[in-house]
Amino acid sequence: MRRPNRRIYDFLLLPGGIVQLLLFLVPIGAVVLFSFGTTNIVGLPKIGFTWANYSEALQSFYIPVLLRTALFAAVATVICILLGYPLAYYAARYAPRLGRVMIAATVLTWLVDYLVRIYAWTALLDDNGLINNVISDLGFGRVQMLGSNGAVVVGLVYVYLPLMVLPVYASLTDLDPALIEAGKDLYGSPRATFWHVTLPSTRRGVLGGVLLVFLPALGDFATAQFLGGPQSAMIGNVINDQFTNSGSATFGSALTVLLLIVLLVGLLVVGRFARGAISGARTGVPA
Amino acid sequence: MSATLTDQRDSAVQSRTFPWHVARRPRPRQFDRPRFLVLVSVFTMALLFVPVVVVLLYSFNGTNSLVQFGGFSLHWYSSALGNASIRTSLWTSLEIALVTTALSAVVGTMLAFGLERGSRRMVQVSDSALVARLVAPETATAIALLLLFTQLGIGLTRTAVIAGHVALCLPFVAVVIRSRVAGLNREVEEAAMDLGCTRLGAMRLVALPLLWPAIAGASMLAFVLSFDDFVTSYFISGVGVTPLPVLIYSMLRFGVTPAVNAIGVMMMILTMAVIALAVPLLRLGRRRLAVSQPD
Fold this sequence. Notes:
A: about 290 residues; mainly alpha; B: MetI-like fold; globular
């Protein structure tokens, strides 16, 4: 560059940097700080150093909640891939015009308020709801669905599915169809072409979708609150109780830190999986 | 003879569909269009739409049952619009969303320029903060803000909610605008500076008009994110500040009413209207981009 005053661009980072610092990094730091804190007589958090919150959180009662949360989020993510990828694939590859309508329709459902969308499922899954009416009309008897683990997973899938479809669709439309043709010309069966050409080429979209579904699902609490029962509470519900009802903020902080640790572990797993997919695509090992 | 027939068929296929089928040989009985793909797509679309249809249907329900449909009525719309607390919440949500949109558009545009053109170390630091923010679940970031605000004695006012929403929307806005900043032709700005523009002047007069569509799109995203946001609003809003999603939450918790469905439909129409307003702006911007960037 001829002109020396490039530092102006660093100054442009300043307002955004301050927002990030004061409204993200400092608050997260406060959570970590208070997770080691104690409470005073009236139950207000106090800075201190104790492992008590963590040992309470790592009691046998909360470990299943953490594991369940990770499991729900993971299962919902996998179902989102299984439903969203074919939809995006069909829209991108077989129906250029209808496909765009399908994707726009997907976005449209996402625009309905998050809580209203969750709540619509209570009308569907209720003991006297639409699905049960259909089932009993077919002569199968009624099934209690509301309050089960399955209902929570269905809710999570429904809430986050559009966030899987969009990045996958974007990566599929970027994919050069000549690549698929090349796979066929090399006598690859459609299945082999999909596994060795299409899927590896769109892994970025899938990965983006996985992050957009898995991460918010980990922290979700409204879905389990409205669709689940006491046996299907997620970590978000427990954290929510600590901060909004008569709970302890320091204990809630420790749970939040544990949630962030679960999230980091999840990211590492996804990262390793992604690396595997990338190297697999490079070497092109036939199945 | 058969070759020309295939050629004819090829050109027919070409003229009809673009771009996927351009070089495709006609293979009518191939595995190419698996039936399961159609089945899964139809199932997924149904899954996506059945609940929305349920919301739409029950918002016009004549009875106050959530399971039985008792005739068409606009009752829930009029009761929702006639409810003072719902109207107050709507204005609160709109105000928060508009201020959030304006703030995050300005700060986000600056951030996008900085991220794309700043010195490497500064960019690395802000980039990792942005990624961490995008990755952290909203429940965690909202609770962190709640904890900080209450510990510092900062009131949980409208301003606090706006601050939380700006922090929430900023990474998305910056990412969207940044991708466009990366695509800018720096030489046009250099030319403006050769003609006597300052660096900031070149940004304002040359780069910003080119970025207009990206900024409009990102602002639209910020508006929708803020207006529909539940988690951050829920934790940070104190007494007397009730954005619409938070009101819906308390309505769902205490005393169910199908008015929620009507509110949901009206919110969806509002967000769609915002998007519909932004689309012509985007078109305008694209035309401008086409004029100033000859290929």
